[in-house]
Amino acid sequence: MPNFSSEIRIIVGAAIISDGRVLACERSEPAEVAGRWEFPGGKVEPGETEHDALVRECEEELGVLVEVGERVGDDVLLGHGRAVLKVYTATLIKGVPQLIEHAQLRWLAADELHTVPWLPADAPIVAALPKYLPNHPPPLSRADLA
Fold first, then answer.
1. Which of 4, 45, 62, 70 is least enclosed by beta carbons within 10 angstroms?
2. What average pLDDT score do residues 76-85 get?
3. How far apart are CA 33 and CA 25, in angstroms?
4. Which pTM does this prediction carry?
């Protein structure tokens, strides 16, 4: 007889913020979600804290070391309630994000958040993000100063 666990699986995601922008990652697989955008992250393994899992996942998926910050938005139920997504802000500590598991990476300002097709589970997180992304005007060019 199969052993079905009644525990809810925790999935963590990182809203990596740098210079007023958040890192968005385009999925390359599986086929049903390829081309959709997400926050990097993954499953919390047994014995791992949510923060430890997020640090590990960012290293595996992007080749970077992050410092995990505060929660963004509420829990998002996934898989008919069998899993829950929890997203945290994160800061790059070491490295530059690399294309290891994703098709494309983009840094998005608050006014650019809706320029990519997000996975449905990330939509409530995207809606909560603007308060973490201060509007930084672009640097002035010499023409602007004349």
1. 4
2. 89
3. 12
4. 0.85
Residue 93, pLDDT > 50, answer: yes
Is the distance from CB of 39 to CB of 14 less than 8 angstroms?
A: yes
- Show the CA angle centred on residue 74, arms to residues 114 and 11, nearest 5°: 90
Mean pLDDT of the 47-73 span: 97
The set of residues, in sequence order, having a beta carbon less than 8 Å from that of 138 and lying 6+ positions away, is: none
Answer yes or no: is pLDDT of 126 > 50: yes
CA distances from 90 to 5, 39, 42, 58, 129 (A): 31, 11, 14, 10, 12
